[in-house]
Amino acid sequence: MARRNEETMMRPPATTLLALAVALAATGCPDDDADRRITTPRAGETVTEIAQRRGLTPDDLRAAAKTYMPTGQHDPYVMFSSGGHSGQVIVIGVPSMRILRVIGVFTPEPWQGWGFGSLASEEVLSAGDMPTHQLRWGDTHHPALSETNGEYDGQWCFVNDKANARVAVIDLRDFETKQIVKNPVAINDHGGTFVTPDTEWVIEGGQYATPLGWEYASIDDYQQKYRGTVTMWKFDRERGRIDVERSFTMELPPYWQDLADAGKLVSDGWIFLNSFNTEMATGATAPGEPPFEVGASQSDMDYLHVINLRKAVEVARAGRTIDVRGMKVIPLETSIEEGLLHFVPEPKSPHGVDVTPGGEFIVVSGKLDPHVTIFSFQKIQEAIARGTADRDPFGVPILPFDQCVEAQVELGLGPLHTQFDDKGYAYTSLFLDSAVARWTLGGPYQERHPEPGWTLVQKLPVHYNIGHLAAVEGDTTTPRGGFLVTLNKWSVDRFVSTGPLLPQNFQLVDIGVPGETMELLYDMPMGIGEPHYAQIIVADKLSPWDVYPEVGWDPLNQAPDPNATRQGEERIVRGDGRVDVYMTVVRSRFTPEHIEVNQGDVVTFHITNVERAKDATHGWGLGGHNVNLSLEPGETASCTVEVTQPGVYPFYCTEFCSALHLEMTGYLRVRPVEELGK
Length: 678
Ligand code: CUK
Ligand code: CUA
Prior knowledge:
The chain has 678 residues and is mostly beta strands. Among the domains are: 2-67, no CATH class; 411-544, YVTN repeat-like/Quinoprotein amine dehydrogenase (Methylamine Dehydrogenase, Chain H, 7 Propeller), CATH 2.130.10.10; 553-675, Cupredoxins -  blue copper proteins (Immunoglobulin-like, Sandwich). It is 14% helix and 38% strand. It has twelve helices and 42 strands. The strands form ten sheets. A six-stranded mixed sheet has the order 8-9-10-11-16-15. Strands 33, 34, 35, 37 and 40 form a five-stranded mixed sheet that branches. The chain has a five-stranded mixed sheet with strand order 36-42-41-38-39, with no helix packed on it. The longest helix has 13 residues, at 14-26. The structure holds [4Cu:2S] cluster and dinuclear copper ion (CUA). Dinuclear copper ion is lined by residues 588, 618, 653, 655-657, 661, 664.
């Protein structure tokens, strides 16, 4: 069904469009008053007349026909986008570019009751806290869908928090966050999350070097005491959790590790991580000294880190680690001794690192180099076998650039990130050029396209300053092609102004046709933080639940909740300053709806939505207490309130669930201490 959708999306009815094109070419835009063009339709207008009235060109109509999802129809693809400093993950239908859902991850999200009183959400969020204080904000960068054999399997989504070096696990049965782990070694991260082809490991590379384990060290001791990191989080698919005990970190030189990617197929078992500031600049520590911007951009080459993950796992299992705040850390000397880490020079102030679908090549972009550099995995292996006397200041072997490079392709200014399609093309974002470059892969991909390998085919302007880009399953072993979404940082003039803070611009691009035919289709304002990376999955691979499997379900543990309440068994249990309210919810009442407690009581509500109808979600908002729960059909949620302020507090259903939704309310009455005993 969805496959049929895909195909019809790619081929709009040609005859209709041709007729429109002819008609539109013959006339012009009737007037330039945009408002009047919209508000003065005539009865029985044809598509051509509407297009004429609105001043739409044939290209506009083609684009519309490629993106429009008729009412009630589903998108064939789903994009999981990081939410940047919103701290969330945003789920978007492609090609319609409709937001389907925002998933609360690192930042409280009121609609889902995420971090607004629900004990389950507090448990997840507080697991990511610092020992001394709460963290309730995150900066999500790179979502990673779980993979089986290098293909998305639609089961899990991971995402990192750059600000605080945390990783979250989202269960795609209910699209909710189940776990947040705080990295005990690093305080911030960037090169995460990227998964190995069977999701055994979730990679989290560091960013700005700091002393390990959140220690203090003077900036004068940068080279001695500051370190980079990469953490391999072990994912336990059965439990649906990262297993911290079986995870480990590798200590790296104090370069700023940036993006990471896992090898696949021929390069399975290896990890590639690029870096900048191999100059080890320490910034303007005194007036007149060069800022980081200058100091970290001096060298022509930085280092691609080539890591033998399989061997690193053995070394960690053999206990050749030190303990840093409970995390096993492989010391840099051990990595060098065991041959876990090699460097390959990469030009210049690199940003993206992306492994080709078959795992043969590693594509690196240098922000300050107009080329992408393509390294051959096989050549890197041969160079490792050959050995090298060249070492960085920490003793890490540096493989000769010329022995590892396969090709360089000049694309334009500010190349960042690369995606792949099914036709042997690669797509690289050009930040400074504000463009997407389509270029050809060589080697085993040569037969898929007519052009010579390793050549630029087309540059498509985008608006503006593109960061990441995402093609359909474009970083898997089997990319689909079809559509590409560009995640543009600036929107400047693309939308109605909403003041000095502008949305980002997601642009949908048709990449379904080979050659110089990429076509810009649609602008989507993204006014929710600044997304970085996104991944697009075929919608058919997702099989989320319609309602929770049984009434009284605990979504955090995906199991029946011991505090679930059946209808007829609702009750209030009191004792020793504690009150437990076992409540049910159904259209259109709470049972019980009157609860009287004493000032100072600690009241825990265990609320079960007994509905089995799809979409029959209720909310539970309690005035004056910063509490809102979302109760999806079957769900049991709990929430604890310490009632310190006497008064009468209505609670009510926050989802408009039925005709008598407004009647769906109750009172929590808190008797003042002076009244007690009267
Ligand atoms: S990064 Cu933002 S454009 Cu954090 Cu992957 Cu490159
Ligand atoms: Cu339940 Cu409104």
